[in-house]
């Protein structure tokens, strides 16, 4: 089963773009690696305590809040860094073991590990000699 058939993107806005006032869709990579899928989401400037990941009825939701980097009242000379909510949702297929989904956050990248159920994992089939 391919990753495409197992996980479907549900966001209504383009990755890495602003989805409205102060809401951003983090850019993600989804990788299939044998017994699991991995989602890598760029969420710079977000403290781990400000990341909320929910899984309910087949939908995986990632939400984070980026806090302002400047002191209150500071006058910006140039402002390109996005401040606000990061939000992304995915529809997860039945080939993922939802009870074993795990997450780590390091260096501005959120990594989710989605283990496949045993039936979806690749396996080798031995060929026997006919007698």
Describe this structure in words.
The protein has a single domain, classed as Immunoglobulin-like, CATH 2.60.40.790. β6 and β7 form a beta hairpin. 3% of the residues lie in helices and 43% in strands. The model has no long low-confidence stretch (mean pLDDT 83). Strands 1, 2, 3, 6, 7 and 8 form a 6-stranded mixed β-sheet that branches. The two termini are 33 Å apart. The chain is mainly beta and 131 residues long.
Radius of gyration from CA coordinates: 19 Å
What portion of residues is helical? under 10%
The total domain count is: 1
Strand content: 35-45%
Supply the CATH class.
Mainly Beta
Number of strands: 10
Describe the structure concisely.
With about 130 residues, the protein is mainly beta.
Summarize the topology.
Layout (H helix, E strand, L loop, with lengths): L2 H4 E3 L8 E3 L2 E2 L3 E6 L2 E7 L8 E6 L2 E8 L17 E9 L9 E5 L2 E7 L16
Parallel strand pairs: 3-8
Antiparallel strand pairs: 1-8, 2-3, 4-5, 5-10, 6-7, 7-8, 9-10
What descriptors fit this protein?
131 residues; mainly beta; four-stranded antiparallel β-sheet; 1 helix; elongated
